């Protein structure tokens, strides 16, 4: 009996929803009859003397860190943004909430379509893995972002810094993993069904937000949620009061999700997430004003389907398998009157179309056993990702199109497929206060050119595919003195970063293998292909953490962690060049060192957090050695808040200070950077949450309260970054039925 109930509780936790509290007798009887028809797990529930099944409550763990807004992993460099933090800030995009995590910043912007995650200075598509409900996301386009997730639909956001054996291959910067909401996250004790409606307004860009969620638990083993979100806005207003042209938003997002606890041991979750965006935007989505690339009429469709199975049976089998499919399509209408270099009176209108399809299969099992005095936790897994990229450019003038873009082929934006498979094993040996966690990962990558690029390579007798194999070992040693609140950990891990389809198979101005760069050693096709070798990374970290009760008279819950790291990257892709007569190689290297500190505190009426990070080092591009650039500036963040009137009112103040940093402001021939300096800045934000009634809530935010003028990352063409929005006042009203 106890083992059966424990197994059900573990499976429920893995599936993502818990067993609710028993409702009224009549409702419970009705739900029991439905459960017998819908879900076989209900038939195994224990019955009370009156014939009504006894609802089994899962084990509940209460943590004040949920109220702080983040959860700090004591061993790994991993931080979780909780649903409470997302509710408090009511962010307009997924990028804003993660900026308080040490070592994390945002490249591009201020438009969400132009933003990328930057972790310890890494921001390329292959450097940082983005995952939604277990499905890998990814989109490659010049001067574009590619992550489209509506924060209103998200429950948590996990950010891991540095390479990891278990989170995925190739991402030496780290990973961002988002999880969507379930009915469990919204239902209150005793409820079986509910709905929430929200509306909001932001004065900076006249944004209007509307969202509706309907959710329920018709039986103890079925979790249902459906949601729709709409955002409409005008142009962003800069701190000087001027509009940022073509920065309006027009997005619609949906989420449909079902969780089924099929048996005491098996849980199934199915989800669909979609986002549509359209409007007039700069071709250079990462920049500020349209600039030299002009504007386009842009339409974006982003869809993600996932299916997850969780099976737990005893200590040897605790498995999770995810099958995911993500599709992102982009349609750009480029007109001659929009001042772009791509369309003129001779070409007429130009249409760029891009489509990315990504399949993910991820399986892992954890086995737990004790041999003598040693506890063991063995985790093994297989991860496979297939991604295809289709791009075309069609001009209105068919004659010019056949000459410049035959069949829609644009040599600077190659078509291709990428396939990867990874196998890993990691075992935790735990003896008293010591933990030793060695692991190893084996990966194979293949990048295959398609379409016109493949025809060009075939014409020159050059291979159309490039493959790599890589072994990535890692080890962590952790000590928890006297099993107390302090933990000291050290980690060493290797990783790698393969070239993107763009990098491997681009021909033309963006290729690093043109004749004027490699001279006689350039491939006849002037496509790099197999000349590229993966970047190699070696990461070392040392941390000390504390998790327990604050020893001061305040006696609140306290979590804090300090980390120092060093990462060496060799074979940098940007350094591909002739290194000696007859030899082409990648002599470039980067040395990064940094520190990160994070703290979270909470008690009944007071909460707060502090974060600090710094990254510096050197970069050698094969010609010169100089201080590293395009890494986040030294950053300090703090949040201080109070809860009043029996927690009906919550008020908090957020301060963020970013120091000056070295950034790329342009490119020399061969795509070598021109480095400049971006000024630092400081921001003050204010947040208020008022639970006016048990069902009605008001959120208010004042961001960039001082209306400070500052610049975001990703400058280009002599600029020092994109100018950021000015002051923004937002109010949101929510009602839960």
Tell me about this structure:
- This protein is mainly beta and 737 residues long.
- Helices cover 9% and strands 51% of the residues.
- The longest helix has 14 residues.
Average pLDDT, all residues: 88
Distance between the ends: 37 Å
* Tally of alpha and pi helices: 8
Principal-axis shape equals globular
Radius of gyration: 26 Å
Low-confidence stretches: 1-38, 42-66
In total, the number of strands is 37
Beta-strand percentage range = over 45%
How is the main sheet built?
22 strands, antiparallel, barrel
Counting helices, strands and paired strands, the structural category is mainly beta
Q: Roughly how much helix do the residues carry, as a percent range?
A: under 10%
Write the layout of secondary structure elements.
Elements (H helix, E strand, L loop, with lengths): L1 H14 L9 H14 L26 H4 L1 E3 L5 E4 L1 H7 L14 E4 L8 E4 L8 E5 L2 E3 L16 E8 L12 E7 L12 E10 L4 E13 L2 E12 L2 E2 L5 E2 L4 E13 L4 E17 L12 E19 L3 E18 L15 E22 L2 E22 L2 H7 L10 E17 L2 E17 H9 L5 E15 L6 E12 L3 H5 L9 H4 L16 E15 L7 E14 L6 E4 L2 E3 L3 E14 L3 E15 L4 E3 L7 E10 L4 E10 L2 E8 L3 E7 L2 E10 L5 E8 L24 E9 L1
Parallel strand pairs: 5-8
Antiparallel strand pairs: 1-2, 2-7, 3-4, 5-6, 7-8, 9-10, 9-37, 10-11, 11-14, 12-13, 14-15, 15-16, 16-17, 17-18, 18-19, 19-20, 20-21, 21-22, 22-23, 23-24, 24-25, 25-28, 26-27, 28-29, 29-30, 29-31, 31-32, 32-35, 33-34, 35-36, 36-37
């Amino acid at each position: 009996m106890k083992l059966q109930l424990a197994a059900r509780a573990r499976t429920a936790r893995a599936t993502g929803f818990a067993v609710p509290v028993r409702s009224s007798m009549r409702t419970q009887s009705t739900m029991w009859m439905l459960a017998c028809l819908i879900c076989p797990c209900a038939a195994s529930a224990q019955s009370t003397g009156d014939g009504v099944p006894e609802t089994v409550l899962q084990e509940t763990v209460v943590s004040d860190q949920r109220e702080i807004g983040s959860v700090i992993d004591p061993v790994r460099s991993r931080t979780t943004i909780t649903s409470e933090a997302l509710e408090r800030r009511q962010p307009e995009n997924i990028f804003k909430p993660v900026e308080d995590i040490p070592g994390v910043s945002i490249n591009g912007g201020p438009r969400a379509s132009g933003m990328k995650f930057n972790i310890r200075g890494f921001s390329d598509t292959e450097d940082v893995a983005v995952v939604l409900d277990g499905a890998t996301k990814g989109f490659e386009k010049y001067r574009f972002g590619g992550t489209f997730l509506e924060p209103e639909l998200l429950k948590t956001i996990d950010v891991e810094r540095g390479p990891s054996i278990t989170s995925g291959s190739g991402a030496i910067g780290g990973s961002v993993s988002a999880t969507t909401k379930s009915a469990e996250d919204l239902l209150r004790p005793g409820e079986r069904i509910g709905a929430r409606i929200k509306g909001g307004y932001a004065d900076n860009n006249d944004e209007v937000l509307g969202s509706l969620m309907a959710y329920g638990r018709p039986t103890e083993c079925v979790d249902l949620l459906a949601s729709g979100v709409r955002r409409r806005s005008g142009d962003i207003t800069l701190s000087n009061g001027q509009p940022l042209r073509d920065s309006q938003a027009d997005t619609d997002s949906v989420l449909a999700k079902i969780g089924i606890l099929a048996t005491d041991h098996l849980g199934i979750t199915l989800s669909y997430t979609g986002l549509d965006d359209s409007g007039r935007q700069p071709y250079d989505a990462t920049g500020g004003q349209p600039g030299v690339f002009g504007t386009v009429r842009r339409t974006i469709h982003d869809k993600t389907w996932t299916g997850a199975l969780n099976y737990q049976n005893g200590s040897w089998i605790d498995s999770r398998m995810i099958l995911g499919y993500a599709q992102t399509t982009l349609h750009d209408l480029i007109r001659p009157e929009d001042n772009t270099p791509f369309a003129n009176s001779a070409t007429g209108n130009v249409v760029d179309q891009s489509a990315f399809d990504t399949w993910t299969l991820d399986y892992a099992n954890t086995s737990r056993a004790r041999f003598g005095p040693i506890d063991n936790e063995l985790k093994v897994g297989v991860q496979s990702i297939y991604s295809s990229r289709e791009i075309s450019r069609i001009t209105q003038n068919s004659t010019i199109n056949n000459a410049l873009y035959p069949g829609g082929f644009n040599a600077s934006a190659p078509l291709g497929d990428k396939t990867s498979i990874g196998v890993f094993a990691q075992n935790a040996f735990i003896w008293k206060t010591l933990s030793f966690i060695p692991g190893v990962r084996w990966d194979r990558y293949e990048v295959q050119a398609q379409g016109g690029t493949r025809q060009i390579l075939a014409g020159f007798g050059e291979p159309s595919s490039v493959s790599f194999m890589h072994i990535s070992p890692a080890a962590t040693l952790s000590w928890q003195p006297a099993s107390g609140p302090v933990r000291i950990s050290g980690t060493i891990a290797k990783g790698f970063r393969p070239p993107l389809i763009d990098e491997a198979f681009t021909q033309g101005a963006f290729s690093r293998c043109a004749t004027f760069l490699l001279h006689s050693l350039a491939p006849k096709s002037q496509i790099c292909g197999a000349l590229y070798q993966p970047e190699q990374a070696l990461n070392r970290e040392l941390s000390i953490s504390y998790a327990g009760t604050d020893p001061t008279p305040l006696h609140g819950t306290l979590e804090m962690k300090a980390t120092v790291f060093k990462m060496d990257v060799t074979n940098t892709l940007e350094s591909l060049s002739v290194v000696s007569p007859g030899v082409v190689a990648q002599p470039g290297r980067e040395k990064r060192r940094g520190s990160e500190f994070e703290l979270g505190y909470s008690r009944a009426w007071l909460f707060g957090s502090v974060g600090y990070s710094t990254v510096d080092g050197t970069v050698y591009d094969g010609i010169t050695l100089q201080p590293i650039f395009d890494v986040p500036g030294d950053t300090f963040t703090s949040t201080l808040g109070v809860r009043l009137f029996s927690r009906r009112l919550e008020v908090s103040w957020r301060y963020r200070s970013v120091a000056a940093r070295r950034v790329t402001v342009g490119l020399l021939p061969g795509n070598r950077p021109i480095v400049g300096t971006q000024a630092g800045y400081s921001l003050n934000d204010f947040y208020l949450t008022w639970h006016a009634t048990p069902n009605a809530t008001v959120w208010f935010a004042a961001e960039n309260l001082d209306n400070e003028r500052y610049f975001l990352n990703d400058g280009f063409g002599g600029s020092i970054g994109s100018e950021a929005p000015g002051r923004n006042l937002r109010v949101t009203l929510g009602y839960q039925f």
